[in-house]
Amino acid sequence: MKTIIYATLVALALPATASASSGVITGHVMFYQNQGNYCDVATQNCAGARYLSTERGTYQPVRNTVLALIDDPSGVPIGFGVSDSNGSFTMSWFAASASPKAKLVWTGRHKDGRFFFLGPAGGTYQFKSKQISLVANTSPTSPQSVGSRKWGNANNPLRLFNAYDGAERLWRTTLSRSNAMLATFFDVEIRAFSDTQPSNCKTSCADGSNKLIQLSTDAPFAPQARVMHEMGHVASYLANPRAIGNDYCWPDTGGVCGWSPGTPEWQAAAFEEALATYFADTALWSASSEAPRSCLSNGACIGVGAMLELSQGPIGGGSCLPNEDRFPRSSERYLWDIFDNHPDPGMNDDISRPVYEVVDTIGSYPFGFFDHQSMESALNLDGNSAFDFMWNYWTETNVQINTFNLLNGNCSPLF
In 150-174, which positions are buried (b, 16+ CB within 10 angstroms) versus exposed (e)? Predict the structure, then answer.
């Protein structure tokens, strides 16, 4: 009796075993690039630019992202993999049928868990490729090529892919250079896109303590001032969980005042906004850039105010505008001159330091509520300014570099 039962079970199992299959696929994942903040090669000096107008309107790699392979039509996952910095991937799969059909699925997650995208209410995005007929018995040495899987087009440039590309570019190009960020910048949640969820915020917001970013409805194609900038705020907080200036109402206090790169703010707020923007700047422009620009734009940055290498201050015998030391753009230009590798005309600028030193300097602020300490701006809205950064950069770190000339030359605060 036991022999009969055993034989029956084996017979029932054989068809399922015989119909199962496995294999390996390889290919590329691409998206239609539609972001602004490019350098226009036809009208601008693009020496050293990391993102050119010739890339916009083309298919670019979906870099360093998590991918899943699901059976079609059941939706059962049959494989997982990641893309590399070229958008290439190789993925093993196992299916219950002999001739499975499947789809690639992308959900907006970084392959190393540095950040992930969700909908405004916390739901998961899912983008599926066209159906793939899988070939069984393929292997890592002889995989099935499925070619390039592309999302978006000129008539429908998918906003999530573009925002993801901005976030990935900032991590790969800038933040990953810092050991402090490698240790702390992970599981950052990016909610996209809403002006009201999870909070009321029409210009995008960041909560460093909770590693949470909200991208507003105007964010998808303006990376420098939106997803990159907000990630910069999170990085700033993670470098040193300190008091962050968020009062922009100078010379008053309180209320909802807003800010812009070229208006006077309390020094704590001005420097924090400059720092977040600086991280974005270095992701789009290299240290050798001759005419870097920074702005909120779905196109190229234009206008004098966007230029990082132009100061209206003492360079060339000029003078600062009233309250220009309070402009976030002044502090941003100061940070840029620490980073770039060529001198500005008329200014003693022989300093060129890597991005990670800026992060390390923020991390070196000792805890306390006094001058040059991490919680100073909790009591003094002009604390934790560019001058405090210079002080710590000069005296508190192993670098010990005096950047006073760069402060002075860019109309940054000298107190």
Answer: ebbeeeebbbbbbbbbbbbbbbbbb
Instruction: Please state whether the predicted TM-score (pTM) of the whole model is above 0.85.
Output: yes
Q: What H or E segment, with its residue span, contains residue 394?
A: helix 386-395
Residue type, 318: G
* Range in 1-15, 58-72, 294-308 the model is least confident about: 1-15
**173: part of which helix (H) or strand (E)?**
helix 159-173
Cα distances from 152 to residues 30, 146, 211, in angstroms, run 9, 18, 29
Average pLDDT over residues 297-312: 86
> Tokens 């009796």 identify what position?
1
Helix, strand, or coil (residue 266):
coil
Beta bridge partners of 60: 31
**Mean of pLDDT values over 166-175:** 98
The rounded distance, in Å, linking the Cα atoms of 390 and 407 is 8
DSSP-H helix ranges across 189-346:
227-239, 267-284, 328-339
